[in-house]
User: Fold this.
Amino acid sequence: MVKQSITIQKKKSFTFFEKWIIFGIILAIIFFLISYFSQKDFFSKKEPILETPKTEMRTLPPDVKKELQTKPASISATLRVPILMYHYVEYVQDKKDTIRQSLDIQPYTFEQQIKTLLTAGYTFITAKDLGDVLDGKTQLPSKPVILTFDDGHWDLATDVLPILKKYNIHVTAYIVPGFIGTNSDSLTSKEMQEIVDSGLIDIGAHTVHHISLKGQPLARVQYEVDESKTMLEQEYHLKVYSFAYPYGSFDQQAINVVKQAGFTTAASTIPGIVQNQQNRFFLYRLRPGYRTGQVLLKYLSQNIFGAYN
Ligand SMILES: [Zn+2]
Assistant:
């Protein structure tokens, strides 16, 4: 009797129909988990999201604000162009180098960010292209984004350039010509030449000695700005159109000198997404940090209008 009842129970618990129901439930749970984690971008949250160091200028200096108030806002189009700011893109060897680590994006993450932007339909333009758009020489693509690299570290040649070549991406690099080939942290002349020859990098200037321009004597600002352009143009036989202020530090005098030197745009470290005639000499930028996937896209689509707009 006992044996018989066990056999009957076994037969009842695994019918063909029930197996399909269980399979269906498991499948539904898997789909739910996948969609939950992809929306939350769970995997990219493993890494910290880097924020702007406190030393960088994040708001407009008073004299620039005052100057803007004297000029009514132009009716020219306001462009939504996220400009992402990078410093180091490498696998940092010295774990005690906290400054380097705080400014670093690992090459793997950088590549993920490029994949995210490409998949979402972004077009990579340069700061020079943006200057041409503001001058009415060319039109903006539908979803523009600009990647910028400050200082001219060696990883631009060893880690960034191979990824740019792989995806045929154009970017802007703000180089400190006084550093090239002079210290172990910067590009060598050979590496710099390789970057120029790639044709993928809009070479911008970032002063001769990486100094803060705010409040400096006019002659010093003129030397640092003018000479950084001339040095790069003469040494590498190119035209330099783009400028970035070291530490994001500028004032109205610095803006005037940059304009007079013939640059068509200058990048600040003020967070924002909107670029126009008013801020073309202090373009707003964003730090992507370790954001990838939906988190990065959401970051770029939010309303960060910058200090002035
Ligand atoms: Zn810098």
